[in-house]
Amino acid sequence: MRKISLWLFIFVFTAALARAQDAATQQQIDQLNGKLQDLIDAQAAQGKRLDALEKEIADLSDKVNTPAVSDAASRDDLKKLAEQVQEIDKKRQDDNDLVLKQIEKLGKISAAPGHKSPPIVPKTTEDNPTATNAGPQKGYDYPIASGDTISAIAKAYRAQGVKVTSDQILKANPGLNPNSLIVGKKIFIPDPNAK
Predict the structure, then answer these.
(1) Which CATH number belongs to the domain containing residue 181 in this structure?
(2) Mapping DSSP to helix (H, G, I), strand (E, B) and coil, where does residue 5 land?
(3) Consecutive H or E run containing 166
(4) What's the CA gap between 27 and 46, in Å, rounded?
(5) Is 163 among the domain residues?
């Protein structure tokens, strides 16, 4: 019985070993098949590249064998080119004149009544209940005109010597929406230098 068990054990062990070798062999065969397929694909790609190069060489050979065409410009060609350059220069000059006219119009618009420098009328925060500073502050009332922005108003006052910023104007007028200014509404412009 021991002999049969031993033979049975050897048989099972040998069969397991053979299966493991078959699996390893199959894996190696699969790897070799994959590499072989990669080589076949690479060879096909090389063949396509060679065909493209042969075609390009044939095209270049045809170009070399064709007679050279004169690339010198005739007198008529130069005359046409000169006329085209003059036409382009005329259009450039017309565009320049148009730009200058538009700039002049913009200058007139910025000097229009709605864009004049703001009137400087001294006021204090005692006269303006919406001002937020703790003590009385000196400044100016300004009626908002069409097209005004907080930064444009601040810039206009700075041009008159009142050193005020957009932030200072917004702080002096709580609840003022700088993106939606109401024409005719009076806002308070603080004068940080006034005492």
Answers:
(1) 3.10.350.10
(2) helix
(3) helix 166-172
(4) 29
(5) yes
Region of 121 (left: φ > 0; alpha: ψ -120 to 50; beta: rest) is beta
Please provide the distance, in angstroms rounded to a whole number, between the alpha carbons at the two ends of the chain: 121
Q: DSSP character for 115?
A: G
Cα 94 to Cα 86: distance, rounded to the nearest angstrom:
12
Assigned token pair, 8: 């049975």
Q: Cα angle vertex 56, ends 54, 58, to 5°?
A: 70
- Rounded CA-CA distance 67/84 in Å is 31
Number of domains in the chain: 1
Q: What is the pLDDT of residues 87-108, one digit of tens each?
A: 998 998 998 888 888 877 776 6
Mean pLDDT in the chain? 80
**Pair of tokens at residue 40:** 């076949």
Q: What is the mean pLDDT of residues 161-169?
A: 91
Number of residues that this document lists for the chain = 195
Place of tokens 């031993």: 6
Report if residue 175 sits inside a domain.
yes
pLDDT at 144: 92
Give the pTM: 0.35
- Does residue 175 come out as left (phi exceeding 0), alpha (psi in the -120 to 50 range) or beta? left
Q: Where are the alpha helices (DSSP H) in 66-159?
A: 75-110, 150-159
